[in-house]
Amino acid sequence: MPKEDILTGYLNLVHFSGQVYGIATAAQPYFGTTAAGLTLPQAAR
Question: What is the mean pLDDT of residues 19-25?
Fold first, then answer.
């Protein structure tokens, strides 16, 4: 399995807070954007 697929799978399952699971779901309440719209500094937090 490629590293990118492993990282994608992990980021889509990780718990961020409350009922927020996955980077796509967490991007909206934390940054007011989609995961694709995150800047590099936002994604690094």
Answer: 89
Per the rule left: phi > 0, alpha: psi between -120 and 50, beta: everything else, 25 is alpha
| 29-42 tens-digit pLDDT | 999 999 899 999 99
Q: What is the 3-state secondary structure (H, E, C) of 1-45?
A: CCHHHHHHHHHCCCEEECCEECHHHHHHHHHCCCHHHCCHHHHHC
Q: Are 12 and 22 in contact (CB under 8 A)?
A: yes
pLDDT averaged over every residue in the chain: 90
